Amino acid sequence: MAEADDGEVDVLILGAGSGGYACALRAAQLGLTVAIVEQAKLGGTCLHVGCIPTKALLHAAEVADAAREADTFGVLAKLDGVDAAGVRSYADGVVNRLFKGLTGLVRSRGIRVVEGTGRLTGPREVTVTGADGSTVVTGRNVVLATGSAPRALPGIDVDGTRVVTSDDALRLDRVPGSVVVLGGGVIGCEFASVWRSFGAEVTVVEALPRLLPPEDAASSAALERAFRKRGITVRTGTSVERVETGADATVGVTVTLSDGTVLTADLLLVAVGRVPRTEGLGYEEQGVTLERGHVVVDDHCRTAVDGIWAVGDITPGLQLAHRGFQQGIHVAEQVAGLDPRPIDERGIPRVTYSRPEVASVGLTEEQAKEQHGDDAVTTLTYDLAGNGRSQILRTQGFVKLVRQVDGPVLGVHLVGERVGELIGEAQLVYGWEAHPEDVAPLVHAHPTQNEALGEAFLALAGKPLHTHS
Questions:
Q1: Is 466 one of the catalytic residues?
Q2: What is the pLDDT confidence band of residue 7, given thresholds at 50, 70 and 90?
Q3: Are 238 and 259 within 8 A, CB to CB?
Q4: Fewest Cβ atoms closer than 10 Å to its Cβ: which of 48, 102, 139, 226?
């Protein structure tokens, strides 16, 4: 195995998040010398302040709900409260174990890790400023993987205590009594779900007409119904006009909405998306094209500068860890002389880990009709009420299939508890351009929620066993 020394490496990666470390590991596996520049910790946003800790919180929330609703299942238990410090300790434990494993893996592959803030100072050069001064690292190929940060809104000052980002929310040592969540996207809906499970009064404010705007309209509507049933107030088509915090830190926050409504809460979470970390890093000075802060790349993650690549949240598209991860592998294989096929952006699975979960892959009904025409698209919705395992879990939701008439399945949309675990089969169906008739003969284990996919495809293939719409 080649090991990076202090000289020029084959692959120099700026940022050690999902895209950066995946690229590093695959490149080292292929015999290339690799160096990673990272100003914080290996693993980036996803591991330390994103996917992993938030999903740990969501699991703790599921446990809280299970205790609260135990009598529904004939179990004598009760919820005495939520220990915020204990929840945080649990999440930190998960993160630390994964971080330790990743650190060991990177070390074992002979990858050089340069700690400090990196800046692109040449087409093959990164200058790293750390505690001990500056270091120049060079590479025959440079991969930009600097990730993203929470988006700020003009006029709303984040103080980290009463007005917080998702990063701040993960470090809270208390469960707020009441919360206003500004933003009904994935991050906003997940935190709204967690805090409601922990007992907080929650209001979600979304400027667009529905929650989870990129998802299929049916999924958005189902999540909104479920949230209202759980006691979460949802205000869509509404924006925030003004935010005020008192001089006394115990006062909380007052939020004035565009319709004149005034909300008061202990906490305001600003969850209006994330912005790429590209400003001030020397990208444009070296000829890398930026659009609205994103690095412009082709479908092979190549920038306008030969030998400079970009992966992850800094590239236009879905800001998902698994997308960056796959892009990183894709770049490493190209540098090594392989010929990987481009990543199908529509085939990347999407999951919102709220209660209920929302998962999807492929086109929404609206997108499919725009692309193929109204008459060329048909849909089928299978209600989870007909699925035995879903009844055992006492969850409501559906499987919605979108297909081209007499053609392949174009999209799969799921709502319900734990449906994120079903998206793998849906991804294969979409990725292989399968027809319902190809999937219908497959035997699905009983009783599983996975069986709901099987029955949905049976119905779409003209063999319905239950009523459907």
A1: no
A2: confident
A3: yes
A4: 102
